[in-house]
Amino acid sequence: MNPSVSSLGKDLVGLEDLSGDQIISILDTAEPFKEISERRIKKVPVLRGKTIVNLFFEASTRTRVSFEFAEKRLSADTVNIAASGSSVVKGETLVDTARNLEAMRIDMVVMRHGSSGAARFLAERIPSSVINAGDGQHEHPTQALLDLLTIRDHMGRIEGLRVCIVGDVLHSRVARSNIYGLLKLGAEVAVCGPPTLMPPAIQELGVTAFTRIEEAIEWAGVLNVLRLQLERMHGGFVPSLREYNRIWGVSSQRLAAAPRDVLVLHPGPMNRGVEIDSDVADGPHSVILNQVTNGVAIRMAVLYLLAGGRQESAEAAKQGGEA
Ligand code: CP
Predict the structure, then answer these.
(1) 61 lines ligand 1 (CB under 6 A)
(2) Which atom of ligand 1 is nearest to the CA of 58?
(3) Three-state DSSP class for 207?
(4) Cα separation of 316 and 30, whole Å?
(5) Which residue owns the Cα nearest ligand 1 atom 4?
(6) Which of 34, 50, 140, 227 is catalytic?
(7) In contact, 56 and 82? CB cutoff 8 Å
(8) How far is the CA of 241 from the centre of ligand 1 (A)?
(9) Burial, 116: exposed, middle or buried (Cβ in 10 Å; 0-12, 13-18, 19+)?
(10) Which helix (H) or strand (E) holds 263?
(11) Which atom of ligand 1 is nearest the CA belonging to 65?
């Protein structure tokens, strides 16, 4: 594989940078990779000899673990670094950390960081591929890709669908990546939540803004429910969690009033009983665990394509060949 011929370029920083065709290509590449995770022996030699560092400066369960599974299932050599156990706590900068890793001859860095723009900052300074696993309030591209794949699996298409992103849009990198991805694939997109949790001028991205959850549910075929990011709130964004749930929470009573079956996604981790009730999260509308399963296939596809693999070779690659 030759990274210089990657159809995605060197890095995956955000869906804002990709065309609709590139996004479709990632989704289509993920399709054959889904089956690898269903095998008794979940391993193919697609990334044999590649070295990948997972550099997580913020907490993560789903993203960190599914990148690691994706890397291992493609036979890459992986190293996990958390800020708390690294020399970052002694004051080492991000670039110095990355340059020292480069000196050990790595091929890719998967990074989660609390600062918006950190992934692009790193991508512009090191020759290895950088994959953004979430940077501040900017983007979380692989989350949006797995959301798109899950919607396509269940609805058969993205184009023409009405998708509403509900909740704490202000602090959400998932919202931003979903908005870019959904619009590029021809969906109609709306957001819904308290005015205090809406970014100013959100409509300039090309979305409709609802202020009442009932209106959003009446309009949408798909709801992507966001976590209230309490750790990023320093002030009175919502009166109380109980009040938030009463006014904005996605409940089975509210879904029952919808004119159609509504598909419900949530990127996790969930605040049950706040933005989403348990009977919705665990009920027939929910595809939340399907999202998690698809996360592994999407991350395999991104790793494979950035390593120079081609969508049309993915089926052959998963049968045992290197791309
Ligand atoms: N959806 C998501 O990014 O979850 P984690 O924070 O657990 O990775």
Answers:
(1) yes
(2) 6
(3) coil
(4) 13
(5) 62
(6) 140
(7) yes
(8) 21
(9) middle
(10) strand 263-265
(11) 8
Atom 1 in ligand 1: which residue has the minimum CA distance?
A: 267
Instruction: Identify the pLDDT of residue 172.
Output: 96
The amino acid present at 100, given as its one-letter code, is N
267 Cα: distance to centroid of ligand 1 (angstroms) = 7
φ, ψ of residue 124 to 5 degrees: the values are -80, -10
Which 3 state secondary structure label does DSSP give 134?
strand
Helix (H) or strand (E) holding 292: helix 288-306
Residue 3, preceding peptide bond in cis (omega within 30° of 0): no
Residue 2 has what pLDDT?
53
pLDDT at position 229: 85
> pLDDT per position in the chain (323 positions), as tens?
555 557 899 999 999 999 999 999 999 999 999 999 999 999 999 999 999 999 999 999 999 999 999 999 999 999 999 988 899 889 999 999 999 999 999 999 999 999 999 999 999 999 999 999 999 999 999 999 999 999 999 999 999 999 999 999 999 999 999 999 999 999 999 999 999 999 999 999 999 999 999 999 999 999 999 999 877 777 678 878 999 999 999 999 999 999 999 999 999 999 999 999 999 999 999 999 999 999 999 999 999 999 999 999 999 988 875 55
Check if the beta carbon of residue 227 is closer than 8 Å to that of residue 270: yes
Max distance between CA atoms of the chain, in angstroms, equals: 59
**HEC string for 55-124:** EECCCCCHHHHHHHHHHHHCCCEEEEEEHHHCHHHHCCCHHHHHHHHHCCCCCEEEEEECCCCHHHHHHC
DSSP string of 36-48, one letter each residue = GGGSSS---STTT
How many angstroms is it from 8 CA to the middle of ligand 1? 23
Please give the Cα distance from 13 to 179 (Å, whole number): 15
